[in-house]
Design goal:
Glutaredoxin, globular, single chain, five-stranded mixed beta sheet, 7 strands, alpha/beta, two-stranded antiparallel sheet, 6 helices
C-alpha cells in the first residue's frame, strides 16, 4: 500500500525515458524534489487531462525546485508521441512490466482492469513526503502535489 511509504526513502529505479535515455531516481535527488506521477495509459482522456494539468503548472513546480516525471507501462515510442502531441516539458518513463509501480505499491484499480494512478512527492533527500491516490480525480493529482 503506497501510504506506508510516507516518510520512507523512495525506492531507487532505472527506467528509459521518452527518448530511450536511462533515468535513475537516486541520480536525480540531492538538488531538487521530484513529483512522480504514475498513470495508466498515454492518449486516454483521463491521463491526458492529468498530464496537461502538470504541464500547465510545470513552471510553478520548477520555481519551487521540483522536477515532474510521469511513469506508465506504455512504450518509449508511445511516450514520445504523447509528449509531443501535448507539448509536455517533462520526462515520461516506460515501466512496461510494472516493476517500478510495484516497488511503489501502485496496484491495478477499478476491478483490476487499469494500472493505478498515484502521485508521489519526493523531497530532495529522496524521502517520500506526500502520496495522492485517486483513479478518477485526474487534475487533483497536480493540485495535491
Amino acid at each position: 500500500m503506497p501510504a506506508s511509504l510516507i516518510n520512507q526513502p523512495a525506492p531507487d529505479f532505472l527506467l528509459p525515458d521518452h527518448e530511450g535515455n536511462m533515468f535513475q531516481l537516486h541520480g536525480q535527488t540531492g538538488t531538487h524534489a521530484l513529483v512522480l506521477f504514475f498513470y495508466p495509459k498515454d492518449h486516454s482522456d483521463g491521463c491526458t487531462a492529468e498530464a496537461c494539468a502538470f504541464r500547465d503548472a510545470y513552471e510553478d513546480f520548477s520555481d519551487a525546485g521540483a522536477k515532474v516525471v510521469g511513469i506508465s507501462r506504455d512504450s518509449v515510442e508511445s511516450h514520445a508521441g504523447f509528449r509531443k502531441a501535448h507539448r509536455l516539458g517533462f520526462p515520461l518513463l516506460s515501466d512496461p512490466d510494472g516493476r517500478v509501480a510495484q516497488l511503489f505499491g501502485v496496484n491495478h484499480s477499478l476491478f483490476r482492469l487499469l494500472p493505478g494512478r498515484v502521485t508521489f512527492v519526493v523531497d530532495k533527500n529522496g524521502i517520500i513526503r506526500k502520496i495522492f491516490d485517486s483513479q478518477l480525480k485526474f487534475k487533483k493529482h497536480m493540485q495535491e502535489a
